[in-house]
Protein 1
Amino acid sequence: MAKAAAAKSSTKRKSKRSASERIAQSPFDLPEIPLHQVIDPSGKAVGVLPKTDRALRLRMYRTMQLIRLLDERMMILQRQGRIGFYGACTGQEAAPVGTVAALEDRDWIFPALREGVTMLYRGFDLETYVCQVFGNSGDVLKGRQMPSHYASKSVNVVSWGSCIGTQIPQAVGAAMAAKYKKDDVVAAAFMGDGATSEGDFHTALNFAGVFQVPALFLCQNNHWSISIPTAKQTASRTIAEKAVAYGLPYARVDGNDVLAVYGAVKEARERAARGEGATFLELLTYRIGAHSSSDDPRVYRDEAEVEVWKARDPLARYRKFLIEEGDLSAKEDERQRTELNETVLEAVKRAEARPLPPAESLFDDVYAERPWHLEAQRTELLEHLASHPKKER
Amino acid sequence: MNLIEAVNSALSLEMAADDRVVVLGEDVGKFGGVFRATKGLYEAFGPERSIDTPLAEGGIIGAAIGMAMYGLRPVAEIQFSDFIFPGFDQIVSELAKLRYRSGGDYAAPMVIRTPVGGGIRGGHYHSQSPETYFLHTPGLKVVCPSNPYDAKGLLISAIRDEDPVMFFEPKRIYRAARGEVPSESYTVPLGKAATLRTGKDVTVISWGAMVHEASLACESAAKEGVDAELIDLRTLLPLDVETLIESVKKTGRMVVVHEAPRTCGFAGELITLTLERAFYHLQAQPRRVTGFDTPFPYTLEDEYLPLAPRILSSILEIAHEG
């Protein structure tokens, strides 16, 4: 009977439009996806605010302020040649901070280039964090990765490679494992708009839909993948609508509105915890600075566009909101800024003083135990170093 | 038991012994795999542990990495090793480097099982031997058994290993290779070669399906008065270099046999290692009997493969040189 009804309704639909009309209309059959925003760029509450307490609101703000100051400092160090590379989060602080605040500490975060701040929110030591940028002996990654590729199991932030999008199927696998073990843990994968062109993105969303896993996909649409604008990355009207093809629920969120992000992620996490599967969130934001310390955005984009987005700055907007709400005074804000700046300077100073990792550590962690050929190569290097003073290497 | 039954037995025993072990891949669940390697696992352990995935090798391997990081012991099946390349980035850029790049914080102990090699009239895309790509990638272990006993014992070792293991199964002999295999669990250690035949004149080194061709060639050589020693590497990485070098020091002559194309094939590495360690023991130029540097052919696969007659020629040639 159900079959007959379906056949009937399909005949009915068929009669409405010709094939050519149907095909021509198809890209527009999806409704416009509204933007979820609760604080407007002037700092006014414009939507239904998620439930938060003052301590949480201020913790988010403090973390956003910290990463803004740290990024500024690190870009200066890069220009001075004291660090090799840096990828700043400037202008995008609300997305990772709103996300991590809405997650449980036991949830796994699979970051991309601009979400290291999630570790700081979870209490990871700032000096150790800065040691990653120097790649020195204080770095938990032992100087094995370029700067801004932070990770630590102690805060459930997973190691990221640089090959775009690879972390997305891995997050699905972690979510499959959490579901299998019946843990109340979700896996949250970050990605940029550029990553949505990678095969791994589509594979991962497809797997997530099929297996109905407790995963969150957080696409920071910052409008630029190095020099490629989103319009040249995809012909879809939005990134969010890509989720439709994989049977995943989705939303488009103002990624510069930390409370909008917080609320959307909270809801998505609850869906996942209830066993309702993964959610895709497009977080609209903007990369105020360069892709990294290695490019000059003036070559490929119009500075006027940057000015438009500077007026939507997530930190300034949230500050106005908190002051308006009475959570924070301008004086307290200034005091915190000064204090955080000193904290950053101190952490950088202490981190920079650390020695490099020892040469023999080159051969550790390739395997759980060193096989004979790495043992031999380690001996070879150490003998060479012992017989050659440093400057002759 | 044949080789495919031995693989199935290893999977079944490990899944029964350790609930962290899951299998995933295309058609591995209800159907039991296109070669039947996972037959019965779906019925015994359910769809949560015998997971039919969408058709995407990068997804299978990527998801397995996430599972392994989380604490499971996934065994991913790639239906043919020729199909592994969509997942190559996940293996080479992610799986192999995870422990290293995270300073030992994260690791993904898992196994990628995949049928390898020619001899089934499979053309380019069901016949290749891509082991060298993975041998060239630090962080992976690479195994290729030649018989049912080793297949079972090595697979159990691979599943229990703390590092990712590429487990290449020679599909040409999935059913042809039969042997006594205990029904209970046992291990064959990774990194240990087997000397299948001792001899004093020539050392022949191979792995996987070509071990059988090499063995036939050694038998024929014996009839011509040449006493060949046959080494089955079993694990390509970590390599049992001692067994190789000791043998070549004894015989002074080496012939390496593999299906993969010659240029940058593993034979080149084995010969170099020997030159570095036993140069003055060599009495003749080392020989490589391998697939040719062409794509794997459909019709002319017997001409392409390093089968017994070609191996025999090399053994006899080298035995009478120097």
Note: Chain B touches chain A through 50 residues (CB under 8 Å).
Protein 2
Amino acid sequence: MTDAAAETTAHDFIAQTVAEYPVVLFMKGVPEQPQCGFSATVISILNQLDVDYVAVNVLQNDELRQGIKSFSSWPTIPQLYVKGEFVGGCDILKEMYAEGELKTFFAGQGLLPAA
Amino acid sequence: MGQIAQTIRDKLNSAFQPERLEVIDDSARHAGHSGATPGGESHFNVVIVSAVFEGQGRVARQRCVYTALAEELAGPVHALSLKALAPGEAA
């Protein structure tokens, strides 16, 4: 497969995944064993909020690991998508969580009970 | 200051004319972790305060900074922890 074809395949997979599941985290490793401190931080935030999510391990496949960066024009991992929209990476989610904004956001999306 | 830290500093200064800029090499804390390199300069913490960020959302601010540092992020810099603030926002 050419690089361009591999990228299209990765983008199709990502688009399909974020369309199918309301909360998707692209991360390094798996929730039980993150392979990167930034991914671990986001997992711990999602767990503390008790929101349901699907995690995709980008380390399983190099096309996916590169493809997620071009998909969102965002050069780092982890990346969180809610209802198909890119919300942010570790720094943004940490800030939103610290300010209580993340909980409000999930509640507004109907993904957590309203406070 | 390391060479990459200096490059990051120069590029951010010219792109954003920040009123405050901190570039901290945080690599030592990540030693042995995948992506860490023996010479350090792989993990950075950046705090930048610039009027450019006024009225921009979080994602837009970070994208601007990532764009300015695209070359470094595609190369030696494995991770960049970033706080991009407009003047007047508490840091």
Note: The CA atoms of residues 5 and 35 of chain A lie 28 Å apart.
